[in-house]
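User: Some background: our group keeps a shared notebook of sequences we're curious about, and every so often someone picks one and asks for a predicted structure to add to the entry. Today it's my turn. The entry only has the sequence so far, pasted here. Could you supply the structure so I can complete it?
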Amino acid sequence: MIKKYILVGVPVVILIVLNTLSVKTNKKLKLENSVLNEYTSELEFYKLRAKADSLLNQDEFDEALILYTQMDSITNSDEYSQYASKIYEERNRFSKNYSKLYNNLRKRSGQIKKLSDNKKELNDSLENIKSTLGVLQEEFDSILAYNSNIALQVNQLNDSINSIKTNDTLSIVNADGVNIKYLGETKDGKASGYGYAIFDNKSYYEGQWDNNLRSGNGKYFWQNGDFYDGEYSNGMRSGFGTYHFESGERYIGNWKNDLRHGNGVLLDKDGKQLYKGLWKDNKPSKKG
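Assistant: Of course. Here's the predicted structure to add to the notebook entry:
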């Protein structure tokens, strides 16, 4: 009988023990499943955050904002959408500042290039000015030397006139009030024939005279280096003659009352023809 109870009781105990173990195992499995679900949800949340951050970094703001809004729904807050908006505004502000800085740099670069070009032009102009000044200095020195030579000749001629006896020289004042010292041939107490004269101690003439006036062929030298070689009448350049400018230019042609008048040609210092034709009152005629 006892054996019979033992045989019946052992399986029951075993069932009770197994049932107890099964209940504990189920509870443990439920707990582990709950934890696993939490980890899974958290992992999905982080994946969502990573994707949203990636889109935001690529400036895909609208798509990123949708994901951040989903995250706000999960967490029952607006933390993530506010975060995205803040980042977006900061990037926009940085982009605007960068664009402004870039435009300023481009503008400055253009200004610097313009200044560089202007500097080059100024340097070129300065070199041209230096070259021109050098030429002008040479011409000025040449003029000074020429004027000194003329002044020396005038002084020598003046000394010669002063050293000659009184009855061989004349002092004349012409119609323009210019004082003339004359040395040469005379007739009835007036300059007639060939003679030399100094005008106001500045310029001089050598050539033909008549009745105290230059008349016939002669040469007149100005203090600035100009000189005329040609015909005179009544004290003025009239007829045919050549006027030599200190610059090297020459006029060859007809004159009337000290003015270029009639046919004539103007040449530059190298002999190149500048004008040929009629002149009237010292100017080229339109009919030339």
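Suggested note for the entry: Residues 146-284 form a domain with the Histone H3 K4-specific methyltransferase SET7/9 N-terminal domain fold (CATH 2.20.110.10). The longest strand covers residues 190-199.
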